[in-house]
Amino acid sequence: MTPKYDLDKIKFATDGPTFEKAIDLYEKGKVTQFKEGIGAYSAVVVSTKPYRVSVEARRYDYGHCECYLGQNDTLCKHMVAVAIYAVMDGKKMSDEDKRLVSQAVCSGRLGELSKSELAATKKAITAGMRYIKSYEGPSRTWFAYQSSLSEGCNRLSKIVSELPVSKQTAKVLVDMLLRLDDRLCRGGIDDSDGTVGGFIEETVQALKEYAKLNPSCVEAFNELKGKETCFGWEEPLLEFVKN
Predict the structure, then answer these.
(1) Which backbone phi and psi does 131 adopt, to 5 degrees?
(2) Fewer C-beta neighbours within 10 Å, C or N terminus of the chain?
(3) What distance in Å separates the CA atoms of residue 67 and residue 18, rounded to the nearest whole number?
């Protein structure tokens, strides 16, 4: 039985500390007696004591654990460790598998994307933005909605942090920011905890680094002229255009 999720889904949708603790359990062989059931996986995870754990094959964050968090319907490191085992099938994780990017930063690497790489990057950005959507649900689904926003921003942060620095990629990021801003202003996004706004600020900071590393990147900022954004994030980038 193949799970409906992959390692990226687990990585981007789980908070950093929980994901790292789950990796530690997995790599130390603490996930024991792993079994496939009907639409779910079960195991005994040896932590402070042995815990019986189950996670669904459809959604890794649906399941049960005997630990305190699991008893209170909170996703725990034991459930995540079992989900990782289901995806990895007990195989060794690479450094890339374990690398968690939760902040958008400038790579500091000069260069351009090939035509195919550019198309793939734009496709990945669109896929990441699907998690950043409007909120019209009841209050009981608000936390799940915020998790979706975090997952989308985490996916986009990885893309931003891996891009080479050039006028080409600066334009890609400016276009992405304008799309996000439109969703914030008119798309019904509830960003009351500042997840999306924080990501936008991180990306603006990365673009400021772009301008310092490669002055031609400033040309991409011209697209922001005459634009009025939700909270004025365009202003520091337009300062580069003025100067």
Answers:
(1) -80, -15
(2) C
(3) 14
Burial of residue 11 (CB within 10 Å: 0-12, 13-18, 19+) is buried
Whole-angstrom distance, CA of residue 56 vs CA of residue 38: 9
Six token digits for residue 218 = 């400033």
What's the predicted TM-score (pTM) here?
0.87
Token digits of residue 153: 């921003």
Residue 54 tokens read as 């189950």
Return the sign of the alpha-carbon dihedral for residues 26, 31, 15, 148.
positive
Residue pLDDT, tens place only, 69-113: 999 888 999 999 999 999 999 899 999 999 988 899 999 999 999
What is the rounded CA–CA span in Å between residue 163 and residue 121? 9
Where does the pLDDT of residue 139 fall: very low under 50, low under 70, confident under 90, or very high at 90 and above?
A: low
| Chain position carrying tokens 């990017």 | 101
For tokens 């998790």, name the residue.
Answer: 147
- The candidate with the shortest Cα–Cα distance to 41, out of 97, 90, 8, is 90
- Domain ranges for the chain: 7-98, 115-242
Asked if residues 63 and 45 have their Cβ atoms less than 8 Å apart, the reply is: no
> In sequence order, which residues have a C-beta less than 8 Å from that of residue 189 and are 6 or more positions away?
132, 133, 134, 135, 149, 183, 196
